[in-house]
């Protein structure tokens, strides 16, 4: 078994974004999706600090520090882009106009609850940013994260132990091992990387996992 | 004749009172009114409540204001950043009060203050720590939390160009919170890179009409990234 | 006694609008104030259909039907004007940013209640427009109206008999006979036209009227 | 590739259903999408709820739609005008339902629909007939009324220019309700006078980003005043 690299994960997420979609990519891992969007699709990226039609990072030396993304990295604007203020930007998000947002996560529960803003440690400084707005605002909230923590702990769980970002908001999870739908019946594996069995994946998943893969008629 | 242009930045911030609530524009360093914040540090007002998206970067701007121990409380969405060591230190030492607000609520609560909305129901944060003891209600089958306006005594913002009526235009994502904060404060003070003649801005493209701005001061923009 | 003409009333209102004020002039009689603003003051007119910096009517033949006022008459824009959409325009009004709005009225009560949108007749078609927003939105709401109806009925009253536009919102009334402040002690006459006595004015006023005029030391 | 430009106005309105709630832009005749309303009349949908500031002028546009008996209910701020005889007649004959909403609430309730606000408290209308049986609350010593969003199935609006992504710019006070309605409807259809290349609009000056627009159709603008 070969875990997917971060680039492979980004490419896998990108493959599911349809032509014409309006998408917000959260800070961290999801930002990488911007670099691997299919060239034959027009996908319009929203960044909550006030830009619809975000382009890739500028060439070195071409940075404009008035033109940044939510992660405060310099970006570019594409033809057809529009700028707006923060209340308008979050109205766009919270009003349900974005098709997809892709977020990182600490934990996702089988009900689709998301924990991605706070580890719950007593000395942690809380910082939420736009995570709670994004999680409830887009038509679909997708998660992109490692399947388990570095220490092997479950991130797909029955109940989140970390403080929640939002309840029942996640519809799909892309991990380095699998693509998992969150359904009313809980987690359903739609794809598993080659060399990993459903049973092995289940052991790395902290809640009941169903097998939703379409079997080829062999 | 209306002339909101103030000759010196010292004059622009001279009457800011101890204990004020100050809305400070910017998302990270983009749109951060560095010159006005420096002037506020020099002016000396203390016991301030600051409302801003972040809690300062490096040692300049808001971070410098925090370091000078002028801030009692900060209301923001994302204090913790790689370069927020000044805030982090004060927070861990218990020397500053923190209220974390989801970014969309931060913007919408200031918009409500400017728009005469007494309170609003919104799904963001329901069922989370940040909803706290707030009133909730199910509307159309969905859980909502009741949120109240955030008013400022003063807003310090940065814009690109202004005219003497206080009309402001911005550059790219440096716009961010500024137009919203301008509506939510009793006194809005803008630092700008350029002053144009009245009529020099396209009337179809002014995110901040001058009615929301009390003072404008021209400065050299500090565009560079924090070192 | 010579009642003030509509032009004189407009001029009297205009004289009280300070330099630099942001003002909304309601449809009907108040619209006339725009034509008699003091030339030595910069007064910025707001029209709720999305313009701050409204200018006078255009020359004949120069009408642009995309540029109208709240009464749907063609107007002009002045240098420094800005256009915005309806929600932003009413946010400006309702957020308390306008210094003064001047409205017409059917009745004003001694508590400052305003009735100016509905006669209460059962077959009347109700139409409120922006009246309820304007009445509560501006820092000061001034009324400009005849002191009594054509039939001699009171318009300054103890209680409005017509349906209310807003409660306790009027601070000053400009009539063809007097300037009346609405205070916590009720109506106070600040000016009366020459040739009309305070007692005569009181009889034309449907509530207790106090005399607030500064008497010259004769 | 994204291309929201529809070749014919008939195609643009073809799928509008009987019983729909339709937001119709315009303040009087400024910004009124006359071509789209004419197309809607030809299309034949009936039992409509119309949300618009006025209830039609003369015999064209909304007035013609009303005259064709397609409208069950109208939600507006100011139906009664000197030239609203079509509406007046239907209303007095009891053939149309009327809901009068203060103009600011009309705008703000559609803004709430577009912005994900479940309900909001606002002082407008408190203590008046129009507050009806609505919930009220004293906030900061002031009376407020609770208002709910107005969602549209369809918005028909007029703009000046568009690109193929559906970005829209407007002319002067013809902007009025259009940008708000575009956010509040499931399907927004815009008639425009001119189509420009992608990148042909100033990104700092687009009141309606294309995300809010599903279809754009180019037409000859009907600017003239109603006779």
Account of the 3D structure:
- The complex is a heterotetramer, with two copies of chain A (218 residues) and two copies of chain B (227 residues).
- Chain A contains four helices and 13 strands.
- Chain A has 218 residues and is of the alpha/beta class.
- In chain A, the strands form two sheets. In chain A, strands 4-3-2-1-5-8-10-11-12-13 form a ten-stranded mixed sheet. Chain A has a three-stranded mixed sheet with strand order 7-6-9, with no helix packed on it.
- In chain A, helix 2 (86-94) packs across helix 3.
- Chain B has 227 residues and is α/β, with parallel strands linked by helices.
- Chain B starts with 8 loop residues before the first helix and ends in a 9-residue tail after the last strand.
- The model of chain B has no long low-confidence stretch (mean pLDDT 96).
- The chains are: A alpha/beta (218), B alpha/beta (227).
Structure in a nutshell:
Chain A is of the alpha/beta class and 218 residues long.
Compile the SSE list and pairings.
The complex is a heterotetramer, with two copies of chain A (218 residues) and two copies of chain B (227 residues).
Chain A: H1 6-15, E1 22-25, E2 44-47, E3 51-55, E4 76-83, H2 86-94, E5 100-103, E6 107-109, E7 114-115, H3 131-137, E8 140-144, E9 156-157, E10 170-174, E11 178-183, E12 186-192, H4 198-203, E13 209-211
Parallel strand pairs in A: 1-2, 1-5, 5-8, 6-9, 8-10, 12-13
Antiparallel strand pairs in A: 2-3, 3-4, 6-7, 10-11, 11-12
Chain B: H1 9-13, E1 21-24, H2 34-43, E2 48-51, H3 62-67, E3 71-76, H4 85-92, E4 97-100, H5 103-115, E5 119-122, E6 136-139, E7 142-147, E8 152-162, E9 168-169, H6 178-184, E10 185-195, E11 215-218
Helix pairs in contact in B: 5-6
């Amino acid at each position: 078994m070969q875990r997917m690299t971060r680039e492979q994960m980004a490419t896998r997420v990108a493959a599911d974004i349809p032509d014409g979609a309006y998408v917000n990519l959260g800070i961290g891992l999801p930002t990488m999706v911007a670099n691997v969007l299919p060239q034959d699709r027009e996908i319009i990226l929203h960044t909550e600090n006030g830009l619809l039609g975000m382009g890739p990072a500028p060439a070195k030396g071409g940075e404009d520090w008035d033109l940044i993304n939510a992660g405060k990295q310099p970006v570019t604007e594409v033809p057809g882009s529009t700028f707006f203020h923060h209340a308008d930007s979050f109205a766009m998000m919270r009003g349900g106009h974005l098709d997809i947002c892709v977020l990182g996560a600490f934990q996702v529960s089988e009900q689709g609850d998301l924990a991605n803003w706070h580890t719950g440690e007593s000395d942690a400084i809380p910082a939420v940013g736009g995570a709670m707005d994004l999680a409830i605002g887009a038509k679909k909230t997708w998660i992109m994260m490692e399947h388990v923590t570095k220490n092997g702990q479950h991130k797909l769980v029955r109940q989140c132990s970390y403080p929640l970002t939002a309840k029942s908001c996640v519809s799909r999870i892309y991990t380095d091992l699998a693509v998992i739908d969150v359904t009313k019946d809980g987690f359903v594996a739609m794809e598993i990387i080659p060399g990993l069995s459903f049973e092995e994946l289940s052991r790395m998943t902290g809640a009941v996992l169903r097998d939703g893969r379409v079997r080829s008629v062999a | 004749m209306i002339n909101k242009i103030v000759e010196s930045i010292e004059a622009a911030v001279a009457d800011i009172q101890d204990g004020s609530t100050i809305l400070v524009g910017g998302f990270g360093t983009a749109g951060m009114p560095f010159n006005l914040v420096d002037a506020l540090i020099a002016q000396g007002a203390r016991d301030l409540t600051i409302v801003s998206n972040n809690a300062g970067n490096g040692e300049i701007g808001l971070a410098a204001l925090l370091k000078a121990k002028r801030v009692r409380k900060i209301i923001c969405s994302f204090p913790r950043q790689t370069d927020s060591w000044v805030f982090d230190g004060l927070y861990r030492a218990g020397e500053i009060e923190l209220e974390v607000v989801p970014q969309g609520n931060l913007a919408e609560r200031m918009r409500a203050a400017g728009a005469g909305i007494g309170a609003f129901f919104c799904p963001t944060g329901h069922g989370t720590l940040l909803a706290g003891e707030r009133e909730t209600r199910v509307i159309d089958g969905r859980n909502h939390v009741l949120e109240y306006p955030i008013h400022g005594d003063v807003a310090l913002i940065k814009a690109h160009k202004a005219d003497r009526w206080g009309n402001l235009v911005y550059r790219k994502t440096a716009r961010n919170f500024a137009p919203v904060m301008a509506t939510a404060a009793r006194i809005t003070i803008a630092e700008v890179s350029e002053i144009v003649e009245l009529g020099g801005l396209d009337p179809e493209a002014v995110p901040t009409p001058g009615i929301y701005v009390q003072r404008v001061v021209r400065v050299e923009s500090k565009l560079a990234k924090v070192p």
